[in-house]
Design brief:
Blueprint (H helix, E strand, L loop, with lengths): L2 H7 L4 H9 L24 E4 L20 E12 L2 E8 L3 E8 L2 E16 L1 H9 L12 E5 L7 E6 L12 E9 L2 E17 L6 E10 L5 E11 L4 E3 L1
Antiparallel strand pairs: 1-2, 1-12, 2-3, 2-8, 3-4, 4-5, 5-11, 6-7, 7-9, 8-9, 9-10, 10-11
Length: 241
């Protein structure tokens, strides 16, 4: 059930335990001064059902979702962006995650992502992806990327880069440091992300479909390139208990 979560975050150690004790801005995965009531009731070890049944009306989407099922929140991640901005991520037991974008202690938007495709990398491959100057089309930071469907349809969709210089063929990924708390331990784990957000319009809908392309270093010798496929979610879509 937690195969991808464990692959991404592993198990905590004594060093991360010390971090947990000293991290004053990290309480149960939430920014200091905020509680589960600020997040529609979302909380570590809680459950949530997300209503996205209207997506089935748009065959153009790659993202799929079961709106009838409650999912266990197995982990919560917190990224402090500075100047009162935070990302809070609620990781679910079906290898998806709900992200809240926080500004000045107020949630301004939610996005739901799926670990759509995970590729394990060697340290050399990871270094080349992040640091080499010879950037190729379709790679992390490129102006556009193409994502293939995981089913047998052979379908491909193209996404446009959201962050960085719109006119540039390549922009450097954004460095994000995440502190993750799981239900298996109160100790936190630090994960480093090199991320770039992409988007496309869903044909016939006002919704956008996103790809958060992310090169990830788990801090213990594990490296991955992850295609996170997602859509916007409103607060009324969320039923948390």
């Amino acid at each position: 059930m937690f195969k991808t979560l464990k692959a991404l975050f592993g198990t905590p150690n004594e060093a991360t335990n010390a971090q947990a004790q000293s991290a004053s801005a990290f309480s149960a995965g939430l920014p200091i001064g905020m509680s589960q009531e600020d997040f529609e009731g979302l909380r570590l070890d809680g459950r949530v059902k997300i209503q996205l049944s209207e997506l089935s009306a748009y065959p153009d989407t790659l993202f799929g979702w079961d709106s009838d099922t409650f999912h266990h929140i197995a982990a919560v991640g917190h990224i402090d962006l500075g100047q009162g901005a935070h990302l809070v991520r609620f990781y679910l037991d079906n290898d998806t995650w709900l992200q809240a974008n926080v500004e000045n202690q107020r949630v301004v938007e939610y996005k739901l992502f799926d670990f759509y495709r995970v590729t394990h990398l060697s340290d050399g491959e990871f270094d080349a992806l992040i640091n080499l100057d010879d950037k190729k089309a379709g790679e992390l930071g490129a102006q556009t990327i193409t994502v293939e469907a995981t089913d047998t349809s052979g379908r491909e969709c193209q996404y446009q880069r959201v962050w960085g210089d719109e006119a540039s063929l390549w922009s450097p990924p954004v460095l994000l440091e995440e502190q993750v708390m799981t239900t298996e331990s109160v100790m936190t784990r630090s994960v480093t992300h090199h991320a770039m957000l992409y988007e496309r319009s869903i044909e016939g809908s006002e919704r956008m479909e996103y790809v958060l392309l992310n090169a990830e270093n788990d801090g213990e010798g594990g490296f991955m390139l992850i295609q996170n496929l997602g859509v916007d979610v409103t607060s009324v879509d969320i039923d948390a208990i």
